Amino acid sequence: MKALPMAEQRMRPVAKAEGFGRNAGIFLIACVCGVASGMFGVGGGVLLVPLLGLLFAFSQHRAQGTSLVALIPPTGVLALTAYSKEGFVSWKTGVLLIPGIFLGGIAGGILAKKINPRIMRQVFAGILVLLGVWQALGAWWR
């Protein structure tokens, strides 16, 4: 099956089902992702993006863009406040991360527009698997 060109991907409707059930489902996964973000520092990329694609037929690009809108401002600020109050923030390292994340985000956004949605989803899934294996090994054998 051939993937649609990028312009057609952007214009295609996200999902045919609309209404209360779909909205309630999106709200439910948002709650789960918010809890995970606050507890583990994950949510958008690790949980919300795959769930939007798998449960609500979002393209990989649309799921990633939607997760950025939903997670960065509210959850990031609230989770940072909670962790900071407990002394769990390395401010020096955090400040050093900002330029790389900023420039990398711009470069990643530009590159994402050039990648076929199916390939992008495959690469994303591969990264999640590799990071999951690495994290699991570190958790049990460190």
Judged by helices, strands and strand pairing, the structural class is: mainly alpha
Stretches with pLDDT under 50, minimum 5 residues: 11-15
Calculate the terminal CA-CA distance, rounded to whole Å: 44 Å
Structurally, the number of domains stands at: 1
Which term fits the overall shape?
A: globular
Number of helices: 6
- Tell me, rounded to a whole number, the average pLDDT: 81
Gyration radius from CA atoms, angstroms: 17 Å
Summarize the biggest pleated sheet: none
What is the helix content?
over 70%
The overall strand count is: 0
Beta fraction: under 5%
Strand/helix succession: HHHHHH
Word description of this protein:
There is one protein chain. This protein has 142 residues and is mainly α. It is built from six helices and no strands. The chain has helices spanning 6-11, 20-40, 44-56, 60-85, 91-114, 117-141. α2 runs antiparallel to α3 (44-56), α2 (20-40) crosses α4 and α3 (44-56) packs antiparallel against α4. 13% of the residues are buried. Residues 11-15 have low confidence and may be disordered.
List the main descriptive attributes of the protein structure presented here.
142 residues, mainly alpha
What does this entry show, briefly?
The protein is mainly alpha-helical and 142 residues long. The chain has helices at residues 6-11, 20-40, 44-56, 60-85, 91-114, 117-141.
SSE topology:
Layout: H1 6-11, H2 20-40, H3 44-56, H4 60-85, H5 91-114, H6 117-141
